[in-house]
Amino acid sequence: MKKVLTTPLTEEAIGSLKVGDIVYLSGMLVTCRDEGHRRVIEEGILPQFPLEKMAILHAGPIVKTIDMGWEMVSIGPTTSMRMEKYEKEFLEKTGVKMVIGKGGMGEKTALGCKESKAVHAVFPGGCAVIAAEQVEEITGLEWPEFGMPEGLWIMKIKEFGPLIISIDSQGNNLFEANKKAFRERKTQEAQKVKEFIRSAF
């Protein structure tokens, strides 16, 4: 059954998610990447749009100006690890409950998700045009001085996804767990090769 979450996100909904779960998001979504995180943490400035219980997307969209406002052309996710140094504090200061991006995030963000009861989710790369089709309306723009990729675009979305939960609210980290498992398998296979060589000669 397709699992769709709607903003504002409740602690119950976030708490029910586990790493590897696939979900979709409806409601409101705000783009926020390097400059937005820096402003919140280093300058202590929050956007006017309330981010508490909301979701942000690490993305640099391409937006077209139209008569009635804006139209989303393309919105591919940005590599989330770029925000690793800010994300824990960002979650604390804003009350954001879901962070969406490309690739995994590290130990600091995992701790932030555990402490703030939030999650990180991965949007598939290479699907920027499909993602744009899931944006029903762009309702606002904050911090336009950062330029199109770095501004905070406020969007109404419907079933945005699929989103894969990579860090859950318990701090479990899918990417790091997979890396650990791979390293263990690599070590085991290397040992088998060494034993084979010794037995052969």
Helix content estimate: 25-40%
Biggest sheet layout: 5 strands, mixed, barrel
Q: Note the overall shape.
A: globular
The fold-level CATH name is fumarase
In the CATH hierarchy, the architecture is: Alpha-Beta Barrel
Structural features, described:
The protein is of the alpha/beta class and 201 residues long. The chain has a single domain (4-174), classed as Fe-S hydro-lyase, tartrate dehydratase beta-type, catalytic domain (fumarase, Alpha-Beta Barrel). 34% of the residues lie in helices and 29% in strands. It is built from six helices and nine strands; from the N terminus they run E-H-E-H-E-E-E-H-E-H-E-H-E-E-H. The protein has helices at residues 11-15, 34-42, 84-94, 107-116, 128-133, 174-200; strands at 4-6, 22-31, 55-57, 62-66, 69-74, 98-101, 119-122, 135-142, 152-167. It has a five-stranded mixed β-barrel with strand order 2-3-6-7-9. Helix 1 links the parallel strand 1 and strand 2. Helix 2 (34-42) crosses helix 3 (84-94) and helix 3 packs parallel to helix 4 (107-116). It is globular, with a radius of gyration of 19 Å. The relative contact order is 0.20. The model has no long low-confidence stretch (mean pLDDT 90).
